[in-house]
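Notes to self, GNAT family N-acetyltransferase:
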Amino acid sequence: MTIEGRLQRQPPLLTDAWEGVITTTPETVIRPLTAADAAAYRAIRMEALHDTPEAFSASPEDEADLSDADMALRCEPAVPGVTIGAFSGATLIGTACYLPERRAKTRHKATMVAVYLKPAWRKTGVGRAMVEAIIAHARKERVILLCNATMHNLPARRLYHALGFVPYGVERDALIINGQSYDEELLMLDLRQDQPAAE
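result:
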């Protein structure tokens, strides 16, 4: 059976964000990364920068010289920021980062960045589960969650719209890669009042 077929049969199930394992099925586990994941994170990060350069402001050259210690810090940033990873067995297949603002005037906001899923696992529900895990944490923190996507990245934009993100602008020429300009859609999801009713 294909990866997609297996996951359609057993879709990811979300539990409370950041409390141990976030998402677990017989196929995948989504959890916060730790320093022990630094090597795997480096590998998938470089893959992402090569595979979809228009989705990231960093280039492979920008990060080629980062040390293992640098990557370990990215895996275990200061709370409440976090990088989550989706695993199939021991293989890291996807990542997403939650970066809160820390300054007094802007700490009502956080940003979701560096969302990436290996091509073989796209359209399986794993990418959606990662984004839902980020949203679940942002909801607990009662923040406005921001993200962006290049205008031509229709799958990402459709997913974000389906999960409640609202466009609030377009950044023209957000990235220029080999002379090609890319505009980005700016999106927000206000979770400050979005709390489930007490049982």
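- The two ends are 40 Å apart (CA to CA).
- The CA atoms of residues 139 and 195 lie 7 Å apart.
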